[in-house]
What does this fold into?
Amino acid sequence: MPKGMKLKSDGFASNISDPDDQFTLETFCSERGIQYGHTGIPVQLDTFTEYGLAFQERMVPELENKMVASIERASEGYLLRLDDGEKIKTRNVVLAVGITHFEYVPESLAKLPADFLSHSARNREVEPFRGRDVVVIGGGSSATDWAALLSEAGAKVRLVARQAALKFHGKPTGKARSLWTRMQHPQTGLGPGWRSSFYANAPGAFFYLPESLRLQIVRRTLGPSGGWFVRDRVMNDVPLLLGNTAERAEVRDSKVHIHLRAQDGTERDIQADHIIAATGYKVDLERLTFLSADIRSTLRAVERTPVLSSTCESSVPGLYFVGVAAANSFGPVMRFAFGADFAARNVTRALVRSLSRAPVSVPVPGVLTTSK
It folds into this structure.
């Protein structure tokens, strides 16, 4: 996320999970004198980043931030090789890699040189684009936020999206909700409504739905949409090319030329200095190259995502997945910070049971974060 962005999730839905719910975002903001609201006050990226670091320092001070180069099977579990040469043996591994390995760029754009194309996740600053001609492709929060920030930074920006109309979250009214309204549309970490309440609060029950239904729900629920706070900045200030798909692109004369096809079949070409592909993420186990080929080939998968047990364990014993990689098993909530509480408690219970049955000494001095 670039500097200046705001979280789309409300304050109450942006907590990091701890066993006793002691260190919430509200608590952090109160301690630091930062303005906070359960709803109605967007969470600034800088605030959430500082909260995350403070959470780690307070709750997991022994954490070691190291890069995991590879994970292989060993006689009694797994062998982890770190990029500093250290080796660690362990019985269990929890992969909480988030979205970092799953950036999705449409095939029509994927072969462009890096000078002319970048995924939205690859950029942290808008200033390098000042004065440049930039096309943002996408219709979700990353696309709308990037378009607004680029426009405000002095870039010439256009937004291209397949959707005929952009969607934005509704702006909170600031008024108290009546009991009847709360009963009809309960507020949840994924938005209002009983369906959202089920997805947000009952991922363990979601797991027992038929697989085909789970996949359909995850595919269709909470699609691309921008935050309410960015709507006017985009709709009033950014030229929009809606209902258009980028069919192909090529570099000519130091410009990237993009061929668009509209929903009515009409075609047009536009050119720019750079494309930012705010085109989301797709889980694909083959992109987790730090896992050995043996492990990846053994993992049961559906739509390139791991098939998990009710405890988040994969078909390879002792290997657990949480976060977006677990969404097809436990529902849309796993794509959001709000799902961290269920994931942490669920996996912890499973690990405690596993270790109590076969106690072992695990030589891991802290918590390892697996990344590229």
